[in-house]
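Notebook B, p. 112. Complex prediction, attempt 2.
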Amino acid sequence: MRSRIGVTHRCRRRERGGLQRRSQKNSTFFSLALLLFVASSAHAQVTFERIVNATKEPQNWMTYSGDYSGKRFSALDQINKGNAHSMVAKWVYQIGATGKLETTPLVVDGILYATGQDNRAFALDARTGRPIWMYQRQLPGDIRPCCGRVNRGLAILNGKVFLGTLDAHVIALDAKTGNVVWDRTAADYRTGHSFTVAPLAVKNQIVIGISGGEYGVRGFIDAYDADSGERKWRFYTVPGPGEPGHDTWQGDSWKVGGAPAWNTGTYDPATNQIFWPTGNPAPSNRGEGRAGDNLYSNSLLALNADTGKLDWYFQFTKHDEHDWDATQVPIMIDAGGKHLIAQADRNGFFYVLDRTNGKLISATAYGKQSWSDAKDKEGRPIANGQASPTLTGHTVCPGALGTTNFMAPTFDPQTGLFYVTARDQCDIFSTAPQPYEAGHAYYGSAYFPSEEAEPYLGFLKAIDPATGEIKQKFQHTSPTWSGALSTAGGLVFSGDAEGNFIAFEAASLKPLWHFQMGGAVYAAPMAFAVDGKEYVAIAAGSAVYAFGLP
Amino acid sequence: MTARNRRAAKQFARLVFIPVVISSALAQNPLAGNPKAAKAGEYEFRINCALCHGLGAKGGGRGPDLTRAQKKHAHNDVEMFQVISNGIPGTAMPANGTNGQGVGMTDEEIWQIVTYIRSQEVKASAKSTGNADHGRELFFGDANCSLCHMVEGKGGRLGPELTSVGASRTREAIIDSVRNPSRRLAWGLTEATKEFPQEYETVTVVTADGQQIKGVTLNEDSFSVQVMDSGEKIYLLEKDQLRSFQKNRESMMPRYNPDILSDKDLEDIVAFLVRVGAK
């Protein structure tokens, strides 16, 4: 496998980030070499067509959610409910850094690509975990990531992997060497812009959404040409003067309105639409000063992939005051001749929309919530009078971390169920006036645990999208940040805060196997196969683990 | 060196050294006593610190009361800056920007927080009126505290170690913990608090061979549990091997009502804990 894809480079740590330009001569030589390489080995190139047809090569995992639909379902079934009890650890790759890992690895033709803390990226031999190359961006000392120096993964396309950085750059790395091919500045990190999201490769574009809702950025989603790095379009998630939706912001509040786009969306090749979720309006816990619905915060956006033009939007939480980002992976489900998109939202409701027009089909609570007792005429849950934070604070459910958060859900076409990590927790939300200051945290608030509240509960829940009914649930010892993977082996995989990686029977959510990894899970699992052997991989603690059959 | 060169050298020195000087290497708080900085620090505190230390810095579910003038880990503003920057090893106090909850702060923002905390301190800290010597006698004697709690290496292991509790908790919080031990029974408030594996929940299990064990959980995950019983015996148990497993939020510590422990005696025990904590 190694020779077939031509990886012969020794592992080299990239101490210096930034652009590393090659001379024209070298470039020509490499282009020629690349041509020869392409001619001899078509498999190494991940093309747009390959990602469109990702389900036809389940041995590879070529995009954040496994395929464009967002299902995080693997058609591999070598590891299945009959043999999962015998799974063993095959390898562990220690990154040797502190901080959380939220990465979902990609695997293409035997090579695993993933990201680590502080914008590390690396390629490993997927059979052994041995490194092929490593890259680390030299980050400025004063970056402003809100929630850890994290990254959720890479995109891969046409011989390059793509990384969004904590200092708000988009970088293309040579997939064979980790060398920087191009580097573009998307925004000024000093005003709180950063990237933590795994980009989405669509056609010849790299689509990526900004983070910084905690700093009062004006959110956006960008598309960059994968070859040149040229920015092809930008969609501002907060409309400017004269644009539809601008009147949902009071005064100048739109300028610092937030609505970041920090989790990976999905893509429908049939309609050429990108479905991308957005986050909280800023300041997150103070609505005073930004009266209105605050579009397009906490929304699902349908954008034309070529132009970035908005086709439709659906806002989950209007005028949010609880930091309930709607940045959960939206999953495309086709059922009964309908083209649906389902999202388990941070606000505690599970939404199913018609993805041809953005119309709401159903919204059902899937966890403990106290903010909504009624629905509007479209069926959208609306806030009751007791939900707004106060100066001294009062208790609202879900808490600030939400019923779910960035942890990736999965939809299993075999059981027809949507699996999501959920948490029952209430917090005391307080609010206080806070002037905007560029580059400074802009929450207008605090939240803290309620001493009177029940203990926090964490679950893996299986929801029937047709009814919103919770069909099965597994209660963890404490809430977890792990995403979930379903496989054709009748299994769902997820991790927990105590460090276990668990294989569940998909139909019953009965644990069949677990392994103690020694570090809490903040990432989502994925599956791949090399040399005919199936593996399931997940990041935990500061390491990437791969499991398989003995 | 020509005048021009000297100017250049000076400029170079400014460029190189001044940014260092205004960062953490400062020998004193550049914002000390500045009310505007204290106000800015209040915003930062709410975002970054209140989760554990409570609104107004009065102590929360996990973090100590910071309105006390005397701090266990920071004897001056510079040390407080270091504590906020680097965390406190071996405790749940994380380094700046690493707890995954709040945001990483700039040096200026940390100084603002230090200034805010100083502004919140109760200058004349409410002094315990109790008799610390008598409190010590009670703690290790008739009140039976030391059967389960350790102070300065002496005492039991079933309950939390209390050597530093007098420094980190308010008098009111300690009294409340004695009068209502179940109320503040710790649970995993946030993932950051996973640093504390021990949650002091009461657990009752029946093993496969019918043995009943009641104790506190030292640690637990979905598949296993480690339990210490009142005799300090530790049991390492697989949950699927147990006949029954029950947890409850009622602490194994008895309620010390005033008829068991008078207000005066409790005040003496608090005085003892405050004295030990201040060492």
